[in-house]
Amino acid sequence: MPVKLPLNINQIKGFLAEDEGQALADYASETALIGPALEVGSYCGKSTVYIGTACQQAGNILYAVDHHRGSEEHQLGEEYHDPDLFDVGVQKMNSFREFRITMAKANLEDTVIPIVAPSGLAAKRWATPLGMVFIDGGHSIEAALTDYRSWAGHIATGGILAIHDIFPDPKDGGQAPYDIYKLALASGLFEQLDRVNTLGLFRRR
Ligand code: SAH
Ligand code: MG
After folding, report:
1. Other CB atoms closer than 10 Å to residue 122's CB: what's the count?
2. Whose CA is nearest to atom 23 of ligand 1?
3. What average pLDDT does range 15-29 have in this prediction?
4. Model pTM score
C-alpha cells in the first residue's frame, strides 16, 4: 500500500519521481526494525518526506545528510540553479531554510535528524549500523565515490542500499551514480533488486 504523505508532495521543490519516492518509503517501512535510515542529499526535503513518513509510522528515525550548499548543477549560472535558494549575503546556495520549512509542514521534526555537513565528514566517525541508505548527493565521480565508500559499509544485513539517478545509457544522464551502482554490484556484498525508474536498489547480504 502506498504510504500516505502528510502534504501535497508536488509543492516541495526537488528531484524525485513519485514511483521512486514510494519505493523508498516501502523499503524504509520494511527495514525499520533493522536500524535507522540515512539519506545523502536532502535538498528541500522531498525524498526526506517519503522516507521520513515511513520511518515515523514505524517508530524509526532518519538521518538527513546534506551540506545544503547544492551540487555542481545547482550553483549560480548552472542548469538547475534556483535563485530562491541562493543566499545573497554569503553568495552561496542554502537549501536548509527550505528543508526546515518542509520538515515542519510534514510534521517530521520528531523523526528526521538533519546533519548539515559534507557526506564524508558526517561519516568520519560513524558507527551505527543502518537499515537503509539512500544516496542522492553530488554527481561528480569524487562525490559519488565518497558517498559509496562512506556509507555502504554501514548497512546491516538485510538492509537496503538505494542509489538515485541510474542511467545505464550515457545519453540519458551522468555516469557517476551508475559507476557506484556497478561497484556495489561487483562488491558481492549486495543482492541486486529491481530498479524503480532511475532508482537502483540492493539488499545487503
Ligand atoms: N533527494 C533530493 C534531491 C537531492 S539534490 C530530493 O528528493 O529532491 C542533491 C543534494 O546533495 C543537494 O542538496 C546538495 O547540497 C547535496 N550534496 C551534494 N554533494 C554533497 C556532499 N558531498 N555532502 C553532502 N551533501 C551533498
Ligand atoms: Mg537525484
Report:
1. 19
2. 118
3. 98
4. 0.99
Per residue in 106-158, pLDDT (tens digit) is: 999 999 999 999 999 999 999 999 999 999 999 999 999 999 999 999 999 99
Exposed e or buried b for every residue in 13-32, given b needs 16+ CB within 10 A? ebbbeeebbbbbbbbbbbbb
139 is catalytic: yes
CB-defined site of ligand 1, < 6 Å: 14-16, 40-43, 46-47, 65-71, 95, 118-119, 136-138, 143
Superfamily of segment(s) 15-68+95-204: Vaccinia Virus protein VP39 (3.40.50.150)
pLDDT at 1 over 90: no
Helix (H, G, I), strand (E, B) or coil at 50: helix
Q: Residues 67, 68, 74, 139: which is the catalytic one?
A: 139
Q: Name the residue ranges covered by the structural domains of the chain.
A: 15-68+95-204
